[in-house]
Amino acid sequence: MNVKMQIKMLAASRGTTLKKLAEKLGEITGEECTYNSLLGKLNRESLSLKEAKIIADILNYRLEFTDIYKKTE
Predict the structure, then answer these.
(1) Is 7 a member of any domain?
(2) Which of 16, 25, 37, 67 has the fewest C-beta atoms under 10 angstroms from its C-beta?
(3) What's the angle, vertex CA 6, arms to CA 61 and CA 39, rounded to 5?
(4) Which residue stretches of the chain are H helix?
(5) Dihedral sign (CA 53, 25, 28, 11)
(6) Cα separation, 28 vs 22, whole angstroms
(7) Average pLDDT over residues 11-26
(8) Quick check: 65 and 53 in contact, CB under 8 A?
C-alpha cells in the first residue's frame, strides 16, 4: 500500500478528509497547504518527514522508527 492510500485510510478512520487535513497542516506549519498541494506530494511520494510527523499528530497517531533487528521477547 502506498503512502497516499495509507494517509487517506488513516484520515478516514478519524472522520476527516484530505482537504481538512491540508488546511490543518497549513495552520500548524504557517505555510500554504491546499488539498491539491497535499495530493500532489502524496502522488509524488515527496512528503517530508516533518510533514508526515505533523499529519500523524493531527490524526492522533505516533510516527516512530522500529529496529527491525531487535529481538522481541
Answers:
(1) yes
(2) 67
(3) 105
(4) 3-13, 18-29, 35-44, 49-58
(5) negative
(6) 10
(7) 96
(8) no
> Which residues contact residue 32 at a Cβ distance below 8 angstroms, ignoring those fewer than 6 apart?
26
Q: Which amino acid is at 23?
A: E
Cell numbers representing residue 59 in the block: 490524526
Rounded to two decimals, what is the model's pTM? 0.86
Distance CA 38, CA 26 (A): 10
CA quadruple 13, 52, 33, 43: dihedral, nearest 10: -80
The CA distances from residue 31 to 15, 17, 23, 50, in Å, are 24, 19, 10, 13
- pLDDT at residue 19, rounded to an integer: 96
- Structural domain containing residue 10: 3-58
